[in-house]
C-alpha cells in the first residue's frame, strides 16, 4: 500500500469532518491537569470508564500538590477500575511531583517539557497540546493509526512515524482536527475487528476496503 497524495488526504479529512460534526475528545476535564490525569488513565481503558473514575478522583485530588503528596496505596485504589492501576498511580504521582518541582505546579505547554515528565509519552503530550493548549499536534493512538493505514496515508506502524507522515500531508492548523476526527472515526466506524464499511463515507477512497472487496 503506497502513501497517498495531499489531495487524497484532504478529501478524506473533509468527508470525516462533515460526517461527524459532533466529534470531540470524550474525556471530561476542566483544566490541563485533569486532562493529563485522564489521558494517563485512558491507556487500555475506555473513555467512559475513565470519566466514571475521574468524577470522584478530581474532587479528592483537586490540584497537582494533592497528587504529588498522595498516599500511593490510596491513589492506586482510586484508579483501580482503569486497569494497570499500580503503574498508572505511580506515573500520576511521579508526574505531578515533577510538575511541582520543575514547573512551579503548572502543567507545561511544550512537547519537550511534557515528555520529560514521568510517565508521559508523546501521545499523551500531543493530546494535551492539541486539546488543552490549542497547539498544533497530532495524537496517534490505535484508532488514528488504523484509520491512517487503511486510508493509505501511511505504511508505518510506529506511532511517531505515522505522526510524521500525517504532518507531511496536512498543514499545522489541521493537526488538532486530525486528532479529534480520526480517533472518532476509528472508534465508531472504522473499528478494528468489525469496521462498519457500509456506513462509512470513504469506501470509494479507502484502499483497505477496495482491496477487501476486490
Layout of strands and helices, then pairs:
Elements: H1 6-19, H2 32-41, H3 47-60, H4 64-68, H5 72-79, H6 85-103, H7 111-115, H8 122-132, H9 142-150, H10 159-169, H11 175-188, H12 207-213
CATH topology value of the largest domain: Endonuclease III, domain 1
Oligomerization:
single chain
Share of β-strand residues: under 5%
| Total domain modules | 2
Quick one: overall form? elongated
Order of helices and strands: HHHHHHHHHHHH
Tell me the helix content: 55-70%
Number of strands: 0
The major sheet is characterized as: none
- Mean of pLDDT: 95
CATH-scheme architecture of the largest domain: Orthogonal Bundle
* Helix-strand makeup class: mainly alpha
Written description of the protein model:
The protein is elongated and about 60 Å long. The longest helix has 19 residues, at 85-103. The protein contains 12 helices and no strands. Helix content is 59%, strand content 0%. The two termini are 15 Å apart. Helix 2 runs antiparallel to helix 8 (122-132). With 214 residues, it is an all-alpha fold. It folds into 2 domains: 6-23 and 138-213, Helix-hairpin-Helix base-excision DNA repair enzymes (C-terminal) (Endonuclease Iii, domain 2), CATH 1.10.1670.10; 32-132, Hypothetical protein, domain 2 (Endonuclease III, domain 1, Orthogonal Bundle), CATH 1.10.340.
Short description:
The chain is mainly alpha-helical and 214 residues long.
Highlighted features:
single chain, 214 residues, mainly alpha, Endonuclease Iii, domain 2, Endonuclease III, domain 1, 12 helices, 59% helix
Amino acid at each position: 500500500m503506497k502513501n497517498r497524495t495531499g489531495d487524497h488526504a484532504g478529501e478524506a479529512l473533509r468527508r470525516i469532518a462533515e460526517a461527524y460534526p459532533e466529534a470531540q475528545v470524550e474525556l471530561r476535564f476542566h483544566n490541563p491537569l485533569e486532562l493529563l490525569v485522564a489521558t494517563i488513565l485512558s491507556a487500555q481503558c475506555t473513555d467512559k470508564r475513565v470519566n466514571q473514575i475521574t468524577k470522584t478522583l478530581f474532587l479528592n485530588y483537586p490540584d497537582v500538590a494533592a497528587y504529588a503528596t498522595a498516599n500511593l496505596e490510596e491513589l492506586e485504589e482510586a484508579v483501580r477500575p482503569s486497569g494497570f492501576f499500580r503503574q498508572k498511580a505511580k506515573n500520576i504521582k511521579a508526574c505531578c511531583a515533577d510538575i511541582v518541582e520543575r514547573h512551579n505546579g503548572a502543567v507545561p505547554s511544550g512537547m519537550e517539557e511534557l515528555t520529560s515528565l514521568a510517565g508521559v509519552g508523546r501521545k499523551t503530550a500531543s493530546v494535551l497540546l492539541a486539546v488543552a493548549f490549542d497547539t498544533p499536534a497530532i495524537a496517534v493512538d490505535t484508532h488514528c493509526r488504523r484509520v491512517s493505514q487503511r486510508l493509505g496515508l501511511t505504511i508505518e506502524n510506529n506511532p511517531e512515524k505515522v505522526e510524521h507522515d500525517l504532518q507531511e500531508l496536512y498543514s499545522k492548523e489541521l493537526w488538532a482536527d486530525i486528532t479529534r476526527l480520526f480517533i472518532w472515526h476509528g472508534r465508531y466506524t472504522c473499528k478494528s475487528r468489525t469496521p462498519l464499511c457500509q456506513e462509512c463515507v470513504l469506501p470509494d477512497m479507502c484502499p483497505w476496503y477496495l482491496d477487501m472487496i476486490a
